[in-house]
Amino acid sequence: MRQTAFREHPHHGRPHHGHHHPSHRHPRHASAGGDWFSGSSDGRGDADGFGGDGRGFTRSRKVSSDDLQLMLLGLLEQNASHGYELIKALGALSNGFYTPSPGMVYPALTYLEELGYATVEQEGAKKRYHLAEPGKAYLDANRDRLTLMFNKLKHVARKMDYMRQAWSGQPRATGPEGEDARTGWLPEFVEARQALKRALLDRTDASPAEQRRIAAILARATDEITGKSGA
């Protein structure tokens, strides 16, 4: 039996208004075998949505129906839009890495309209979609997940810019702090991320005790990065 990528998210909030969760329909929007935001089912790809060899730009662009619908609502919160404008917005946000097809976006918008999450304003032959109050409630209940998805798209866009510049062999334009002018990344920031990935790969055969030691280090680092260390 063919498995699809959309999943239940029991930990995510949902509005209380009697409608079904958006991911329960339109399975043709979902991708088989995992998706880009959650990671592929076979474990390939790193936390950036790329393969570990740095060349996997096209390998993991699968996005589930639930995630696409949530991103569309997030864009509608910013501006009422036509379907093609939403497609362009996702492409621009990700620097072309993720540009969903009309065959994915328009049925998703129709379904959001059916749920009452979006309303439609007819403009001649075109439809302009607006965020409705139930859609806003659903967004508010899933705000952290939406922020993470948009941040992943922004990150992958910057990484593509950074890698293209590296491959070009041309000197980087830098800002006043030495940051890359296009991405805003400092060389030491990029090098630290790469060093961490290499260190974890070097410990792939670590014993359970060593894994616990590494996990504790990463937990402390995560708390410091997010400001939760209590310092």
Your description of this structure?
This is Transcription regulator PadR N-terminal domain-containing protein. It holds the Pfam family PadR. InterPro entries: Tscrpt_reg_PadR_N, WH-like_DNA-bd_sf, WH_DNA-bd_sf. This protein has 231 residues and is mainly α. Among the domains are: 107 residues, Winged helix-like DNA-binding domain superfamily/Winged helix DNA-binding domain (Arc Repressor Mutant, subunit A), CATH 1.10.10.10; 46 residues, no CATH class. It has seven helices and five strands; from the N terminus they run ββαβααββαααα. The strands form two sheets. It has a three-stranded antiparallel sheet with strand order 3-5-4. A two-stranded antiparallel sheet has the order 1-2. Helix 1 crosses helix 3. The longest helix has 26 residues. The protein is globular and about 60 Å long.
